[in-house]
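Hi Prof. W.,

I finally got the Major facilitator superfamily (MFS) profile domain-containing protein prediction working! I wasn't sure whether to trim anything, so I left the full sequence exactly as given:
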Amino acid sequence: MADKLDLEPVPSAKPLASTFSPIQEVLFITLVCMGQFMTQTNIGIVLSPLNIVAHSFGITEPGISSWFLAGYSLAVGTFILVSGRCGDLFGYRRMFIIGFCWLALWSLVAGLSVYSNYILFIFARVLQGIGGALLLPNGLALLGATYAPGKRKNMIFAIFGATAPNSALLGTVFGAIFAQLAWWPWIYWSQTLVCIGCAVLASVVIPSIHHDASFDSSYVGLLKALDALGGACGICGLVLVNIAWNQAPIVGWSEPYVYVLLIIGIILILAFFYFEFRVAEHPLIPFHALSRDVSFVLGCVACGWGSFGIWIYYFWQFQENLRHTTSLLASAEFVPVGPMGIIACCATGYLMGHLRPGTIMMLSMSAFTLGNVLVAIAPVHQTYWALTFVCLLVIPWGMDMSFPAATLMLSNAVERKHQGIAASLVTTVVNYSISLSLGFAGTVEVHVNNGGNTPGDVLKGYRGALYVAIGLGALGMVLSASYTFKGYRAESRSKDDESEESGE
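And this is what came out:
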């Protein structure tokens, strides 16, 4: 049908959700959404107090402070696939609870790094990302395995998606409050307390999800089931490529270790695909699920969220460094993202049952692109209520149309036992794109800002980075538009063929 998603849902057993009482269902959805909440909060909490934290460590090089965000997103995007496979093998509930505990531990260390140096802080931020990598795919997998395809599942996924902008918003607000009015380490220590509470409640409320995940329990059998060799190549390759791109703006591409890391990373990524296609008995990625529709969605998600990663970092830099807005005021100005995100997610939950995925993605990519254009052309001394406010109304539509649609499509496309991997693919692309795109943008910034010695030069660098974001968003628009056009043309040809057959 022209007005339905192009993927047919995979049949599953009687949904577990039918056994929930209303209270248990509310608690279940709340706790799963808390996994998304804590993961995305870790993006917001570093943005508003970025300059305060950097100043406490004596950091003056912007390329170093960008690692506060990029390091976290790198770890989330890199380890999600392995975390999803662990959930498929050992249970989504178990890995979900471990994710809360892991995030609690390294949030504690991130706060304690105030007594050490910024290297420990970045290290703790990276390891926090592993906690997010455990929470996101296994939380989505819990939803995917609990609810049968249909309108109810669509709306639950939309609610999960709506958690993202609001958690990022609350993260910026509380990050600013703790950093400006108290002491910034309490941002992370408070996270520790929340994560511990969520882990305890999850162990009581969330049921075990049983599925066919039999494997040889020997050491070798476990390594094969985890696709350890392929996973090691993939993780190391993604990490090295990302480090190279994010270090280049700091030390320059002339440093031999930068391009050596890039070359080795690319080789390892190629080795990963070789192992997945030719060697692995249990491939880490279910390539049978990567239909034309799924591959298209992942490509658009990479472009859109790469664009978003640049936008969210340089939006805050623009507000605080050029407009000299305080952390608290900037957080207050960021408030429209929350309610607009809820509206966008609810609208997307409805539209996913009525529009082609190409149309939804085209609207999403348009929002990402327009949001970056509005920031890139905004004058420094212009009132907030002009382009900045409009930008904050537009950007949530990009986030909350692409993420729920992509996760729902993949959830419906694969079997119940592969729900963790399905969720992992989307979240891997989202978070890795954010981290890698910051490296692209940072490279452009340092090459066009003339050293950043004057406000005008700083502005020129920021706008150069935002132009990269606009380019990524525009590429996503082209991909989604071309795919939508092909879909309508194929449908038209199908109707013509049916008419000719009926005429005969």
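Residues 18-208+218-227+281-487 form a domain with the Growth Hormone; Chain: A; fold (CATH 1.20.1250.20). Does that look reasonable to you?

Thanks,
D.
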